[in-house]
Amino acid sequence: MFTNNQRGFTLIELLAVTDIIGILAAIVVPAVSGIRAASTEAGVKEGAFSVSSASGDFFTAQTAGELITPSTRAINATIKSDTDTSAASTQKKSTRWPEKYLTGDAVSAGLYANEFRTAT
Asked: Is the N or C terminus of the chain more exposed, i.e. has fewer CB atoms within 10 Å?
């Protein structure tokens, strides 16, 4: 009688395993690429928020909390043109930012409007 002492896998078994691995790869790869895209998007949003927060801190420190908008800029220009040029302004240095800036009365408000431009 003939006995088969060889050990190993048949061709059918190997094909079945490769098919299963292919099906799993087809399911997993798109899911993983979606996760990577979502994490990249979250990183970009976090970076944009950090820049926004830092710029807000900078302008708050420089303008003592005054937000320069197009309407504020128009008001400051009117105030500046209505006042005489002898108004006093002082130069200060921020405790947080190294740049010097002017502060004081309406003249400095006009200077702020020109110095810190807003996107329009």
From this structure: N
Q: What is the 3-state secondary structure (H, E, C) of the chain?
A: CCCCCCCCCCHHHHHHHHHHHHHHHHHHHHHHHHHHHHHHHHHHHHHHHHHHHHHHHHHHHHHCCCCCCHHHHHHHHHHHHHCCCCCCEEEEECCCCCCEEEEECHHHHHHHHHHCCCCC
Are 89 and 111 within 8 A, CB to CB?
yes
Task: List, for residues 53-69, the tens digit of each pLDDT value.
Answer: 888 787 777 766 665 56
User: In angstroms, what is the C-alpha Rg of the chain?
Assistant: 34
19-36 tens-digit pLDDT: 999 999 999 988 888 888
Q: Residue 83: its pLDDT value, please?
A: 45
The owner of tokens 């420190």 is 61
The CA-atom distances, in angstroms, between 99 and each of 35, 58, 62, 91, 92 are 42, 10, 9, 10, 9
